[in-house]
Structures are given as C-alpha cells and as structure tokens.
Design a protein that fits this description.
The complex is a heterodimer of chains A (79) and B (572). Chain A is built from one helix and five strands. Chain A has 79 residues and is mainly beta. Chain A has one domain: Ubiquitin-like (UB roll). A five-stranded mixed sheet of chain A has the order 2-1-5-3-4, with helices on one face. In chain B, helix 11 packs parallel to helix 13. The chains are: A mainly beta (79), B alpha+beta (572). Chains A and B meet through strand 4 of A and helix 7, helix 8, helix 9 and helix 17 of B.
C-alpha cells in the first residue's frame, strides 16, 4: 500500500531531497505497522519519533491504514 | 543571601540578610511564600500595599546550565490572584552573582515620579531619578541605559504599557546581546512596576558574590551530569536549537489542538507557513539566526534572531506562543507580520499572548477581519498612543470582550489560555482552570504526556492527576530558576538524579525527590490560600462556557472534565 508522509524537524534529514511542500510517498506491504514504516524510512527509534494520523498519536504496534497521511515528529514537551 | 528592599514611597533602600523562614528558597517559591505572608490579599494590585518581587532561582548564579531564569511576582492586576511570571535573558544570572535572593519593591512613588534601581558590582544599591526616561519604549530605553551605565549590565524594565498600568503589561528583560526581548509577560506585572514608579532595574552582571555552595566538588559533578543529560535529550538537543519553541507549531496543529481564529478551530489552515521548520528555512536564506543563545548559561540555544527580507533585524526571539497568539488566533499566516507584532509588543512592554488573543477577540467580534495583519499592527500601535481602543487592548482579552460585547473570550481568571486548546488536550483544561495563576501553560503543561503516548488527550481519564503532577513539578522548577526546556530531562532517571544531587550539594542537605514534591505542594498551597483570602472559590476554577459547549474541529470535542473532578486537583 502507498501512504503519504510529512516529516518535521530534523527527521527531514532521513529522506534525501525531501520536499517540505509535497512530503514523500512510502510504499509498504499490505499490512504494516508504525514500526515497519519507521524502518522503511530509516528513522531510528533513538530519535523517539512520534507518528500522528488524523490528529491521533499512533503506537509503534498500530497498523497503518492504506492511503493515510502520516506526520512524523520528534517529541515535544511544550514551551 | 540578601534582600534588597526598596520603599518607593520614601525612596529608602535597605540591604538585609534573608530571614530564616525564607532560607533555602528561590524564585517562585520564595515569591509566593513572601506574598502570602506580607501582601494583604484584598489589596488593590496597583496600590501601595502590593509588593513586587524579583527573585533568581535557588541555583541562579551557579554554574548549573539553564538556571538563569528570573522570577517576578506580585498580586496580579490581570487575574486578581497571586502571580509569578519568569523570564530568561541575563538578569537572573546577574542577580545570583550579586548574591541577591530577592529585590523587594514596596510602596509607591509620588505621582508622576519615575525611578530606576541601580545595583553596582559590589552589591551597592541606589534609586536614581528616571524622569528623563518616562514614556520611552524599551529598545530605546535600554540603549540609553547602556550609554549611561555600560553594556556590562542586565536590565529589566517597563515600556509605555507598564507606565500606563495596563493590565497585560510585561516586564522586559535583556538578552545576551542587550536587547529587551525576553519577557515576564504574564499577569500584568509590568503594570505593578509602573504603579510603583519604577521604570527599570539595572544590575551589574559581573558580581562574584554568588551564595556559597556547601559541597562544591559534588556540585560540579552533578552540574556536569545534568548538562550531559540536557545535551543528550532529543527535545533539548535536536528540536530546540534548530527550530526553537516554534518547533511546536507543527505537532500541535497535527494533533488538532492549535486554537485558531479565536479558538473556533483546532488546526490553522496556514500552519505550515508559520511553522518552526519554515522559519528556520527562511532565516537560513535571509541570514537570520536559529540556535541563538538568548540567556546566560544556556546550553540549549532555542532562541532566534528574526530578520526581514533585507536581512535587517526584526525581533528576537520569535516563540511558539507568540506565533500562536499573533498568528493562529488572528488568522495571520505571515511570519513577517507576526515578527513585527512580536517586536512591537516587546518594545511597548506588553504580553504578546494576551495582546494577540485580545486582537483575535476583537476580530471575532467583527471589528476587523481575521487574517488582516496591518489591522493587527494598527491595533497594537493604539496601545502606545494611549487611545481608548489601545487601553482596552492593553488591559487584555477580557476587557476587549466587554468592550465589543463579545462572549467568546478564552480566559480563566482574566488571563488568556495558551497555544493548546483545552478541548483537544483535556489535561491542559485542568491546568488552565485550576492553576493559582489563571490560565497559564507554564503552570503545568500536560502536552508531553500525550506525545509520549502515556495519556489520551481527548479522554478524561488521568487528566486531573497529570495536571496535578505537572503543576507540582513546575512550582519546583520555577523555584530553582531552571528553564522549562531543560526541565524535561527531569523525566529521565539520570536527569532527575543529577538535579537532586545539585540541590543537595548546594544546600548541604540530603533531600530525596519526594522532598521536592513536598516543596511544590507547599508553594501551591500558599498560593491557593492567598487566592482564597482574596475572594476566589472553586467556582473560579472553571473555563468559560464555550469550552464546554462549542465542539472544536477536527476532533469535535468539548471540555469534559466535571466540576467535581476539577475540584480534586489540589487534593494532595
């Protein structure tokens, strides 16, 4: 399945020639979890990535729905 | 360890040892307990009985990184409650180095008199007539003060808004480049300073009289460990230096919690144009700066220097809360306009958050259209002119709502919420409603719990406990003088351990972490007790009705925390 990804903060560095306007598409197996997506993008767990879809924060084990748009961040804590 | 006590009525200046009951305290803790003990709770906040305090944190003036915050407090003219507001810059470190535990401003100068307080490198303090500076905006003021006293000083000052005693007036603090661009913005404490007849405090920043550290060797080790923890945390080490607090625009919008168009939507259509990522790109192109060090002893460098298309300085530092209030709330998706508004507020000495929200309320009431940047600038300029509309806007969103007869005013106890909508983050609903400081994210922001996946922001479960926890932690953090952006390492075992070891080495005690919790509770109890005597009850610990009745897109939720649960927040 194909999903659309938007990366933020330093996570943009993990995709070469990342276009902030368009984001990037990712082709994943028909059944894939958040963990699978992060591995696919090469984003290490040490960056503590936070994945948000439709305004909800997903867990690493959550299954991704086809045609989703996912936003990936580093953790924030308020300021 | 001394108090510098100024009686503005008599111009008497006294330097005194700190009374025993206040030893071992700093920042917010010291301020709140002192106000609780000495300020008549029902007094006029702008009258002679109110007391204004400036206190560095307990570790201000030490080598521990990110502990240069300066806490300011009084009874607030905006909220009517006890209020502590703290600022970055260089003042907290300078005060700590001079061995100052607190500067205490009492009484009130004769009408039309203006004074400044100067503290020399040896700690000698004196009041100097300041009538020549009356009416000056803060950038021109500090330039004049640096000419007179030299650039080796740290300054806190008020602008025209504080002199007019407007309820949203800030106290501005100089950054490492001597610009008055850091603010104790919340609670209208600039109006209290104006009411006293005090225009500025000028501290020599070269003091060598930091209070003694009981165990210097242990302190040094703990300080190194703490600095390492801050450097290795992804938030403080990655996100903050590159994007600053503006790095929050993207995730908060993505979570649907960015109050926009006067809190009628949770996602701002133009958020990518005002994001930290976009600002960083823009500054790289234009020759501005992210990763700027705005505060003494800072190892995070979250600050930025925003420049225009010609590379000319506009403001420092453009922060998340200002981008939210002047951008999302007003519908303005142009960072250049938002940066101009930020500068204008700093220069006039007024809170960017209350002012942005006030502009948004006026726009929502139909006075101007959402998104009209020039109208927003013109409205803020009215504050400097002292016009009727300027006075209304300068008195905060509640005054704006009354003026325009508009009921959607996102405030609690007279103070605007911050850039986290309580309907999309139920724990922040609890903090806004119950904090003794009025709506204020710095009093206990729960957002980290959501991002870490520990709590569902839209459900009621666990929200009261999370708010309570963060309110207690913040009372402690603001007493130590620690920057909130460094305080998040306290959620790691190594950060916590180093922090408690530093405090123990400083004081020569063997406190456990539970002792810090007890300190936080003690502070909150004193603040609540003051507010009770000032006339506040549980009924004041509520959000405006529209937060319970108007669903916020995209989640279409309302605040669901019951009154009974709100009232359990301080069941310690």
């Amino acid at each position: 399945m194909r999903v659309q990804i938007k990366l933020f903060s330093v996570l943009r560095d993990y995709v070469s020639d990342y276009d902030p306007q368009k984001g990037v598409a990712a082709d994943l197996p028909a059944v894939a979890t958040v963990s699978d997506l992060l591995s696919h993008l090469g984003i290490p767990m040490s960056k503590v990535p936070v994945v948000i879809c439709n305004g909800r924060i997903l867990k690493a084990t959550d299954t991704i729905q086809p045609d989703s748009t996912l936003h990936i961040f580093q953790p924030v804590a308020g300021g | 360890m001394r108090f510098i006590r100024i009686n503005m009525s008599s111009q008497e200046v006294r330097v005194e040892p700190v009374p025993s009951q206040y030893l071992g305290l700093g920042g917010r803790g010291l301020i709140s307990l002192y106000i609780h003990d000495h300020v008549p709770p029902t007094c006029d906040p702008l009258g002679p009985d109110n007391i204004l305090l400036f206190a560095p944190g307990l570790l201000g003036g030490t080598q521990l990184v990110n502990t240069s915050r300066i806490a300011v407090g009084a009874k607030s003219p905006l909220t009517g409650t006890i209020k502590e507001s703290n600022a970055g810059g260089t003042f907290g470190d300078a005060a700590g180095r001079l061995g100052i535990t607190a500067i205490i401003i009492e009484g009130r100068a004769y009408k039309d008199q203006s004074w400044l307080l100067k503290v020399d490198v040896d700690g000698e303090a004196r009041l100097v007539p300041a009538n020549e500076y009356k009416g000056m905006r803060t950038y021109a003021l500090v330039e004049a003060l640096y000419k007179s006293y030299g650039s080796h000083n740290a300054i806190m000052c008020i602008g025209p808004a504080g002199e007019q005693m407007l309820k949203a007036a800030s106290i501005q603090s100089t950054d490492t480049k001597g610009r008055p661009c850091r603010a104790a913005g919340r609670g209208g404490l600039g109006a209290v300073m104006g009411s006293k007849g005090l225009k500025a405090i000028v501290l020599d920043s070269g003091g060598r009289a930091t209070d003694a550290i009981a165990d210097p060797e242990a302190f040094e080790k703990a300080a190194k460990d703490f600095a390492r923890a801050v450097r290795s945390n992804p938030f403080s080490a990655d996100v903050m230096p590159k994007f600053g607090t503006a790095g929050l625009v993207a995730p908060v919008n993505s979570m649907g919690g960015f109050p926009s168009y006067n809190a009628t939507k949770g996602v701002f259509e133009g958020w990518e144009k005002i994001s930290g990522e976009h600002m960083a790109e823009l500054m790289a192109k234009r020759g501005g700066k992210t990763g700027h060090q705005g505060c003494s002893k800072c190892s995070i460098k979250c600050s930025n220097e925003f420049v225009d298309a010609e590379g000319k300085y506009v403001t420092s530092s453009l922060e998340y809360e200002t981008i939210w209030s002047m951008g999302g709330m007003t519908g303005i998706d142009d960072l250049d306009i938002i940066a101009q508004l930020d500068f204008l507020c700093d220069d006039l000495g007024i809170d960017t958050m209350s002012t942005g929200v006030g502009v948004a309320v006026a726009m929502d009431a139909g006075y101007k259209s959402f998104g009209d940047g020039q109208a927003a600038i013109a409205m803020v300029e009215e504050i400097a002119k002292g016009t009727e509309l300027g006075r209304v806007l300068g008195n905060g969103p509640e005054a704006v709502g009354k003026y325009f007869k508009h009921s959607r005013v996102p405030i609690v106890k007279g103070q605007s919420i911050s850039g986290y909508d309580p309907r999309a983050m139920q724990g922040n609903a609890v903090t806004y409603a119950t904090s003794p400081m009025g709506a204020d994210h710095t009093a206990g922001n729960v957002v980290a719990e959501y991002v870490a996946g520990k709590l569902d922001p839209l459900k009621t479960e666990g929200q009261v406990a999370a708010s309570r926890h963060h309110q207690i932690i913040m009372a402690v953090v603001d007493s130590i003088g620690l920057c909130v952006l460094a305080s998040y390492v306290l959620s790691t075992p190594e950060g916590r351990q180093a922090f408690i070891k530093a405090i123990n080495a400083k004081l020569g005690v063997t406190l456990e972490l539970t002792s810090l919790t007890e300190l936080g509770i003690r502070i909150l109890k004193a603040e609540r007790a003051f507010n009770r005597k000032a006339g506040f009850t549980n009924k004041d610990d509520r959000l405006p009705r529209f937060f319970y009745e108007e669903p916020l897109p995209p989640h279409n939720t309302v605040v669901q925390i019951s009154d009974e649960d709100m009232d359990k927040t301080f069941e310690f």
